[in-house]
TrEMBL record:
<keyword id="KW-0547">Nucleotide-binding</keyword>
<keyword id="KW-0067">ATP-binding</keyword>
<dbReference type="InterPro" id="IPR003439">
    <property type="entry name" value="ABC_transporter-like_ATP-bd"/>
</dbReference>
<dbReference type="InterPro" id="IPR017871">
    <property type="entry name" value="ABC_transporter-like_CS"/>
</dbReference>
<protein>
    <submittedName>
        <fullName>Molybdate transport system ATP-binding protein</fullName>
    </submittedName>
</protein>
<dbReference type="InterPro" id="IPR050093">
    <property type="entry name" value="ABC_SmlMolc_Importer"/>
</dbReference>
<dbReference type="InterPro" id="IPR027417">
    <property type="entry name" value="P-loop_NTPase"/>
</dbReference>
<dbReference type="GO" id="GO:0016887">
    <property type="term" value="F:ATP hydrolysis activity"/>
</dbReference>
<dbReference type="InterPro" id="IPR025662">
    <property type="entry name" value="Sigma_54_int_dom_ATP-bd_1"/>
</dbReference>
<dbReference type="Pfam" id="PF00005">
    <property type="entry name" value="ABC_tran"/>
</dbReference>
<feature type="domain" description="ABC transporter">
    <location>
        <begin position="5"/>
        <end position="237"/>
    </location>
</feature>
<dbReference type="InterPro" id="IPR003593">
    <property type="entry name" value="AAA+_ATPase"/>
</dbReference>
<keyword id="KW-0813">Transport</keyword>
<dbReference type="GO" id="GO:0005524">
    <property type="term" value="F:ATP binding"/>
</dbReference>
């Protein structure tokens, strides 16, 4: 239904590394879902996110959320970020260095709600750091603070601009779980910018693939990136992003270090100690794939 979707039809001229580029995006986003904007650096993902947030003005077009118009170049409508009720997590987290963690999370609330701040600190495991300053935290802890601060506004929309890009791969899995937690806490529509296929398969209900300023694919991760065939003879190391139970076996989706995707069948005795996020080695022996967990 029209009032259950975000309708986006915007254009903007950008200057990219290869010269001028026309960002031309027309899509519909279901409200309440976790959607990943996927593409290489410079494709236009972050600009699109900023236009939705009201931080960057499109050259023309419109953005409509349900029955509410956020931007319409023809009608001269351009709601401010404050009017759009969004929570935004930037790549560098944009925490205030002179504020405590409690103060950072509370900042931006329309009305001070200490109970909600304390609840969010607890949910993200930050209670013991409430009186500290951001420079005393690790990168993963700062990301949790940024997520908690975004949720403290009780947003209808949670916008995440590659929040894990600066973090080591060893802690990305746990923080991907934090993003899922953030999405579930409020049931807000979540838009995540990423160029990491592991994140896509772990997090996305829907993917919008963007290349050179244009959408080249929209749908579920499997529909966009897989041809539904299972790799046969393989010899790879990668991370499990999905484990699916079939009739008598399990289907593992694995993303390699080269951002390639393979699907592998396995039986219960082969995966009893495996979980999504684990690093594994898959190799073939007479056409039968063998799976071995890789110890970090």
């Amino acid at each position: 239904m029209e009032n259950d979707v975000i309708t986006i039809d915007v254009q903007k001229e950008l200057i990219s590394a290869s010269g001028r580029m026309q960002l031309n995006i027309s899509t519909v986003v279901p409200m309440g879902e976790l959607v990943v904007l996927f593409g290489e650096s410079g494709a236009g993902k972050t600009t699109l996110l900023r236009m939705i947030a009201g931080l960057t003005k499109p050259d023309k077009g419109f953005i409509k959320v349900g029955n509410s118009v956020w931007f319409d170049s023809k009608k001269g409508i351009n709601k401010s970020p404050q009017e759009r009720n969004i929570g935004f997590v930037f790549q560098d987290y944009a925490l205030f260095p002179n504020m405590t963690i409690f103060g950072n999370v509370a900042y931006g609330q329309n009305r001070r709600d200490e109970a909600l701040v304390n609840k969010l600190l607890a949910k993200f495991g930050l209670t013991e750091f409430a009186a500290r300053k951001p420079d005393k935290l690790s990168g993963g802890q700062k990301q949790r603070v940024a997520l908690a601060r975004a949720l403290a506004r009780k947003p209808d929309f949670l916008l995440l601009d590659e929040p894990l890009s600066a973090l080591d791969s060893s802690i990305r899995t746990s923080l991907q779980n934090e993003i899922l937690k953030a999405h579930s806490i409020t049931n807000a529509t979540t838009l995540l910018v990423s160029h990491d296929l592991t994140e896509v398969f772990r997090l996305a209900q829907k993917v919008i693939k963007i290349e050179n300023g244009k959408i080249t694919g929209t749908g579920k991760p499997d529909d966009i990136f897989l041809n539904n065939s299972i790799s046969g003879k393989v010899q790879i190391t990668g991370n499990i992003v999905k484990i699916q139970k079939q009739d008598t076996f399990y289907l593992l989706t694995v993303v390699t270090g080269m951002n390639q995707i393979v699907k592998v069948t396995a039986f219960e005795n082969e995966i009893h100690d495996l979980a999504e996020g684990d690093k594994i080695m898959v190799f073939s022996k007479a056409f039968n794939p063998l799976i071995m967990k890789v110890q970090n």
